[in-house]
Amino acid sequence: MPELQSKEEVREPYTAVRALAEEMKDETVVVRGRAQTIRAVGKKMAFLVVMEKGFTVQCVVTEKEGLVSRQMVKFVVSSNRESIVDVHGSLTVPRSPIKGATQQVKIQLRKIYCVNKALPTLPINLEDAARSEADIEKALQCC
Predict the structure, then answer these.
(1) How many CB atoms lie under 10 A from the CB of residue 63?
(2) FRET pair for 34, CA 20 to 30 Å: which of 46, 93, 117, 128?
(3) Neighbour count for residue 29 (Cβ, 10 Å)
(4) What are residue 128's phi and psi, to 5 degrees?
(5) What are the backbone dihedrals phi and psi of residue 73, each rounded to the nearest 5 degrees, phi first?
(6) Is 26 left (phi over 0), alpha (psi -120 to 50) or beta?
(7) Is the CB of residue 48 less than 8 Å from the CB of residue 98?
(8) Are 85 and 114 in contact (CB under 8 A)?
(9) What is the pLDDT along the chain (143 residues), one digit of tens a residue?
(10) With the CA atoms of 81, 86, 88 and 93 taken in that order, what torsion angle do they form, in degrees rounded to the nearest 10?
(11) Could you give phi then psi for residue 105, rounded to 5 degrees?
């Protein structure tokens, strides 16, 4: 039955996070990765750090009439960490270095799709699992 068969999607090719560089400024990119960090800055702006194979990129979603709605900002903020997302946007180069990401470019989000939603509460905190023995010993000594 043809109506039950998958429809072929026409989409832009993905760009690897590790390949994102300053030379790509103003290009439109599509990236798939894990939502590592999500942080709201008021009701009209949010930051999202997307990780793919150990490389991270900071994404910024800002309400702009005709481009990004407040509902989209709210959707990003309410997304679960570790969810798999597709982000579409244009690359910009910040004036100051980005401390929370490996790539020194930002993606100005225009579209975001949740490919696979993670559980709201994960059984293990990934930041804790990534800590070294020295970091754990140091944390235990201070308390």
Answers:
(1) 17
(2) 93
(3) 21
(4) -65, -40
(5) -60, -45
(6) left
(7) no
(8) yes
(9) 455 555 555 467 899 999 999 999 999 999 999 999 999 999 999 999 999 998 999 999 999 998 999 999 999 999 998 899 999 999 999 999 998 899 999 999 999 999 999 887 766 666 667 777 887 777 777 65
(10) 50
(11) -135, 160
